[in-house]
Design a protein that fits this description.
The chain is of the alpha+beta class and about 550 residues long. It contains 13 helices and 29 strands.
Length: about 550
């Protein structure tokens, strides 16, 4: 039996044709209200907003995926009514200035589908409704009651899930949630494990730290394969929290590979190596090349490259005091991860810590004209010049930015990932690796602990086109992974075409950008053509169904 649980205020907007609002549900944690479009001229969103203004001044109310959907309708309606708005984190937090009401997106806080979230927390679960019917309320007939119950359930189930999350944060860390899971994670770390203000930001050396900070290894080795074992690592980044990280003030020192920190070096990777051991940026693209090149790296990554026989010469080096300050946090979050139902939540919570430390200091903000005294460098978003946009340098106002910690954890994760790929190559073929995954014909040891491999099954076939674009066939069904193309549903024949260099074009639809919404235009769908290029270059160079690393002079 589902436990009755009171949670946070929530709302949900339902539409037909993705553009015409027909209903708004609102749950304040105690009582539920709904605003239904009963005839063509009705405006359920304005009815909802008027109700909030009259009864809930100062409220913070959540919708799941609000920044991509619900908040766009709120923004459009309030703009058309000439109401003053403030976008404090873009559409993640839309603040209605008059009644001081904030409309927030719960997805950055709990980044998973609502139904999965409800099941994880054991609360009332999201219902089902056939959206493709595109029925307006007066066309629903006997279905209207089912629709209203669906709307109500969506609001209450999100409210209860958010309440459960708040309860868990309070019990485990004594905190309330912030705007996102990453900010909440750092908040918990700072209160319970190590005060972030004691960690040096080393802002004057940030240029070099950022140069030494790279993303995860993501490479296609063989573009097609059969009978492929698929593995990923249990909480790869959190497993790396057991190492010392930079916490003290940095200073220049004489080159010494045995000292901790980061260094600029010239490296020479033999051109006959199948896998390059060090990350490098070529025209903004992350690759792992062979040949001779110079850059900045974390010293631990340089040390590992030297152990593989790579020649290198350190030119400059920054050193500082280091401590394993993340270790206790990592162990604690891992215990929470092992609560089977909440595994995904605490896994994301753990990785969010180092991600937040690595956040950039420049952010984009939007301001109402009445809030700006000097319009220098502000760009109007619309012809009416009511809203303006600017990029701001947050600097010391962002106390959670500690990029050297993110640099260290990412470097250690790449080293551990490469070791796993090389282990797999000893006994079989390796097709693909992405940050913490290995696709191989080898059988590798698995376990449930931090840093151990976890088996995700076997694929009968796999098509690996480029970074983050591939498909595997498991139990006769296609599973597509396509970052940047998630709204395109490709077939196995499409992937065969891409493998041979064919380009694919598909029509997709989307809501309009914020710029149009702020001009007060009615919401309408935009039609776009998306192209998937089969001949696009990879992080490695294709040679038939095999690949080779990019070679530098």
């Amino acid at each position: 039996m589902v436990e009755e649980y009171r949670g946070l205020p929530t709302f949900d907007i339902e539409v037909v044709g993705w553009t015409v609002p027909i209903a708004v549900g609102f749950y304040d944690g105690y009582d539920y209200a709904e605003f239904i479009k009963e005839k063509e001229e009705d405006d359920p969103i304005w009815d909802f907003l008027t109700y909030l203004k009259r009864n809930y001044s100062g409220l913070r109310v959540y919708a799941h995926c609000a920044s991509r959907f619900d908040n766009k309708f709120i923004l459009s309606t309030l703009s058309q009514k000439d109401e003053k708005l403030r976008l404090e984190s873009g559409l993640l937090r839309l603040k209605w200035a008059g009644p001081n009401i904030s409309f927030e997106d719960s997805f950055p806080l709990l980044p998973m589908p609502l139904k999965k979230m409800n099941h994880m927390f054991g609360v009332l679960e999201k219902g089902e409704w056939a959206h493709d019917l595109n029925l307006k309320p007066w066309e629903m007939g006997d279905r209207l009651g089912v629709f209203k119950e669906y709307l109500k359930t969506d609001c209450i189930s999100l409210s209860q899930s958010l309440g459960k999350f708040c309860q868990s944060l309070g019990q485990n860390f004594g905190i309330t949630p912030s705007i996102s899971l990453s900010t909440t994670s750092v908040k918990a770390f700072s209160k319970c494990f190590y005060p972030v203000e004691k960690i040096e930001s080393n802002e004057k050396f940030e240029e070099f730290i950022r140069q030494a900070t790279y993303g995860g290894r993501n490479e296609v080795y063989k573009r097609y394969g059969e009978n492929i074992n698929i593995y990923d690592v249990n909480s790869m980044f959190v497993s790396c929290y057991d190492i010392p990280v930079p916490v003290g003030p940095m200073h220049w020192d004489r080159p010494n590979i045995d000292k901790e920190g980061l260094a600029e070096a010239v490296v020479s990777v033999p051109k006959d190596r199948y896998i390059g051991p060090l990350p490098y940026r070529v025209k903004g693209r992350l690759v792992f090349p062979v040949g001779e090149f110079k850059s900045w790296w974390d010293i631990r990554e340089l040390r590992y490259a030297a152990s593989l026989g790579i020649d290198l010469t350190i030119k400059r080096q920054l050193v500082c005091e280091e401590e394993p300050i993340l270790e206790e946090f990592g162990r604690f979050v891992d215990k929470l991860r092992k609560k089977k139902k909440e595994t995904q939540l605490w896994k994301m919570f753990g990785i969010s810590l180092s991600g937040k430390f690595g956040q950039g200091r420049w952010r984009e903000s939007i301001r109402h004209a009445s809030e700006i005294k000097d319009f220098t460098d502000y760009t109007p978003l619309g012809e009416d010049e009511i809203y303006f946009i600017i990029k701001e340098y947050v600097g010391g106002r962002a106390p959670y930015i500690k990029p050297a910690i993110s640099m260290r954890i990412r470097a250690e994760a790449r080293v551990r990932h490469l070791k796993m790929i090389m282990k797999a190559m000893e006994t079989g073929k390796v097709f693909y690796g992405d940050t913490d995954s290995v696709f191989t014909t080898s059988e590798l040891d698995c376990g449930e602990n931090l840093g151990q491999l976890n088996s995700l099954g076997i694929a009968e076939r796999g098509y690996f086109i480029k970074q983050k674009l591939y498909a595997i066939i498991q139990k006769g069904k296609i599973i597509q992974r396509s970052a940047g193309y998630s709204d395109l549903k490709l077939t196995e024949e499409d992937f065969k075409g891409l493998l041979s260099g064919t380009n694919i074009e598909k029509k997709v639809t989307d809501l309009p950008p914020m710029k149009e919404l702020l001009r007060g235009k009615d919401i309408h769908l935009l039609e776009k053509i998306k192209r998937v290029r089969g001949e696009e270059s990879l992080s490695r160079l294709p040679v038939g169904e095999d690949t080779e690393p990019i070679r530098l002079p």
